[in-house]
Amino acid sequence: MIKVVGIVGSPRAGGNTEILVNEALKAAAEEGAIVELLRLCDKEIKPCDGCRSCRKTKECWIKDDFRPIFDKMVEADGIIIASPVYFGSSTPQVKALIDRAGYLSIAKGRVFENKVGGALVVARRAGQNFTLAELLFFFLHQGMIVPGSSYWNVAFGREPGEVLNDSEGIETVKNFGKKMVWIIKKLKGLV
């Protein structure tokens, strides 16, 4: 069994970022993965306060909705994190998630090491390259394997549904979803 989670970091449900993640997850499911979409818009994930207590306790002391999402990331073989561009960067929800997940992963012995992961980004006009790099740095820092695609995992759109007009962006994330499952199968010795 292969499990892929797609985390939507937009503060709005049903928007372009969620559409993009669903396209990647559908492609992953077509390749045999069990997929799950997780939205941050209805969750409270507070930012990391840098206390480093997780290094001693192996837990994050902050009480909010972070832990169930972290647990699903740990259980998954593949992790997709997606964000719209907000002032040239990822959303605060995504930043809070990756900061805390990164610290807790290290405290628990690098639990994301050798998982497969990657980022998806939606931009209205600009900021996509920095946001993509910001998210990719999380995956690379955690020792994860990041598959390529036919281009960068970026699509353009502002109004809900507009991202579907970016046919190259949609095809790129579909290819990414398929490539992610192919790599996971290779790592598990299934192909």
How would you describe this protein?
The chain has helices at residues 16-30, 54-57, 66-75, 92-107, 128-141, 167-187, and strands at residues 3-8, 34-39, 78-84, 116-123, 154-156. It contains 6 helices and 5 strands. The two termini are 13 Å apart. Helix 1 links the parallel strand 1 and strand 2 (34-39). The protein has a 5-stranded parallel β-sheet, with helices on both faces. By secondary structure, it is α/β, with parallel strands linked by helices. Helix 1 (16-30) crosses helix 6 (167-187). It has a single domain (3-187), classed as Rossmann fold, CATH 3.40.50.360.
Name a few traits of the molecule:
five-stranded parallel beta sheet; alpha/beta; 191 residues; Rossmann fold
Which secondary structure elements does this structure contain, and how are they paired or packed?
Layout: E1 3-8, H1 16-30, E2 34-39, H2 54-57, H3 66-75, E3 78-84, H4 92-107, E4 116-123, H5 128-141, E5 154-156, H6 167-187
Radius of gyration (CA) equals 16 Å
Coarse structural class: alpha/beta
Oligomer: single chain
Low-pLDDT stretches = none
Major beta sheet, strand line-up: 2-1-3-4-5
Q: Give the CATH topology.
A: Rossmann fold
Largest sheet: 5 strands, parallel
**DSSP helix count?**
6
The CATH superfamily turns out to be: Flavodoxin domain
Q: Helix proportion of residues, in percent? A: 40-55%
- What's the architecture, going by CATH? 3-Layer(aba) Sandwich
